[in-house]
Automatic annotation (TrEMBL):
It comes from Sphagnurus paluster. Pfam families: COG3_C, COG3_N. GO terms for cellular component: cis-Golgi network; Golgi membrane; Golgi transport complex. Residues 152-293 form the Conserved oligomeric Golgi complex subunit 3 N-terminal domain. It is a peripheral membrane protein. Keywords: Golgi apparatus, Membrane, Protein transport, Transport. SUPFAM superfamilies: Cullin repeat-like. This is Conserved oligomeric Golgi complex subunit 3. It is found in: Golgi apparatus membrane. Its main location: Golgi.
Amino acid sequence: MASSRAPARRAGPPAPLNSQPQPTISMEEWEAKAPLGELETRSIAAIKLASEYIPFPAKASQSTRTFSDEAGPSSRPGTPLAPQLQRRALSTAAGGSSSRPGTPLAGAQARSTHALHPKAPIQTPQQFYDWFAVVDRSVAHSQEAHFRAHVAGVAEHLAACDSLLEKIEIVEREVDAMLEGWRGVEEGGKSLKDACEKLLEERDGLLELTEEIDARLEYFQELEHATRMLNHPGESLVLQTDFLYMVERVDICIDYLKAHRHFREAEIYLFRYQQCMTRAMTLIKMYFVGSLRALSVDVSKRLSEKDVSPTAQMHLLYTRFKSVSTQLLPLLSELERRARTHPQELSALLEECHTAYFSARKSLLVGRITEEIKGLDPTRTELVELTRAGCSYLKQLCTDEFELYRNFFSSGEEQLYQYLENLCDHLYDDLRPRILHEPRLTALCEVCTVLQALMVLDVSSVHDDDDDDGSESPQSRTRDTETLSLDLDAPKTGGFGGRLHISHLLQMVLQDAQTRLFFKAQSVIQSDIRYYVPKPEDLAYPDILVAAEKPASSTEIREKESVSERFRLPSIEKQDTWYPALRKTVWVLSQLHDFVKPAIFEDIAQEAISLCRQALVAAADIMRVKAPLDAQLFLVRHLLLLKEITQNLDLAQRDGEASGSGGGRSVGDAVGMTDTLASMLSRTTSLLPDALFASLGMPRADESIREAKHGVDHELRGACEAVINLCTEFITQPLHDWAASPASSSTANNAPTKSKPAAREIAAAFERACTTELRGHAGRLRLYLEDARTVTARVLLEHVRERIGDAYEVFWQAVDVGREDVMSIPVARKLLVDVCT
């Protein structure tokens, strides 16, 4: 099989069809043409020996050994050599295993020893030829034996290679099968891994689902525990630790089921849980009401005994209740918290607790409050003293009740204040009629002072709790008063504050007092200001001013200082020289300034100032009949005082500036209006109405005057113009008349100037009028406008001096002849300065 496959592997490309066959060369010709030397022969022999036994690969060693054992030693003859080597080879072949025939032997021995010997004697030539042919073929065959051996070796190698290839192919198929198996195992392992991971995920999902179901079932399973506990109640059930824990769990379950109403039977369980919560809170309410009722009965019995000291009463009314509150506070806190969370179901229970508490406290306190009020004797005690004592007692009582209530509850502030107001009504029922029928304005102001003092102390205590250092500045006190007045109408919120706001309890009484104060002030304004009829001694100016130069008594000084502190007027110490309507206006406004709301005070202040201005104008009209200049100076003096009052009240922005400036104006600020007037008057030589008061912010003459201070500005402007005219008219009129007359200028015909009054006489009359009458007017002007208003007097005199000087300058320029005999302009102006200084 190997021999048949060998030529196929060794075959080369086919020979061309038209190629000539190569000539064949015999071995003898090859040897003859290519003789070999000894060295070449040895080399060939060595190559032959080395190539005859080529080792097979290690993988084919077994098959090689088997084949070698079967074939035996090689019988391939060597290459023909020289005659000596040829004979040696023949002799070796004859004695070895060579197939080359040796020398023919004689007889039967030769026939038996060699196959080429003829089996029968050769008798004929043909037999010889046949035998010779056999011998010849044998010789030829023996000569080609080594080639055949080589071919056999090559074939053997080819067979070994084929065997190796087959084994390689088998190994490859095995390796491919192993790879396929490995891939199958890999894919199977991956699928198994994925399946295992999926199973693990499913297991984790099931475990998580189981845990979630268990967690959700807890909200449903809690119902059994809560129902079992509530079905076996006892008097001490609410005091057990598990009770509040059960309530907390039920509340959590209610919130959870409200958020997950889509769960199956969630509505049913939610309804049952709400029933459990209501039952639990009802047990708390019943326990609280029962404990409170038992305590109230015991305290009432002890209070009804004789000779119970005030200390014992305080112990029974407050200490006993506080000791019980330590046990009830946790339960009531739970009820309040649940009522805020579930107002529709539980707010009624909390209100019942509040009602029971207030009823118990009221039954214990009403009799004691009535006795205390009777001890104050409301019918005979002075109104201010009754207000101070009664409100102080109620403030302490309400504070104690407030603190006691906080030991039980943390909500229900509105109900608490209603309860405290009911307690205060026992005093208010006696106090309100006295306030509403009180005819004295000062008494009403003192009542408001007492009430506001209690409120301010309450507000200040709140601020002291907020301040670590406890310091209080004037700004903070002003802020407290303003906060008090602004917060009286503020509604009480639902949150529970940390302190009792006594202002809410005193608010009604303060409002009654303020209302009565307001109407009484209006009555005083109408009677003593609007319809005031002046007496002759009220208009005795300037005698009143001259008499006021003597020092005032200490009592009058203190009264004036009290008004000065409110309005900060620089001339307040001489208010005896004021017109009575102005004094009454200042007094009424000083009484109302701190006791009514800013908006109400602004309205009544504008009304009072407007009526006072009208009263001053009417008084000046009466005085003008006898003394026009005194009437105008009286009006200027009092209008300046009234304007300063208006400026210091600051009706439009009193609240904002009070908090921003920290407490009002100083004395220097009070003069600011007068300084402005002075600077305005000094900027103009003619007292034109619009230019005169435009810088003061006063309205023009053609504008409607709607507010009281604008009316004061309008009247003050006219009064100043009238004063300047009265002081200058009697001096400047002759000068203007002489300068305007035709005789004062030269005519075309050079007419003599003797017909007109002599300029010297006019100048002399001018000098006499300045030194006498003008000096007297200047002194009177200073008398009316003394103190801080001296600045205004000086400014008015400067304008008087300027107007007279301008008139004299016109006169002097009109003089054509004899100027040297007339007083010059600088001399005239210096004279005016000396007179007006």
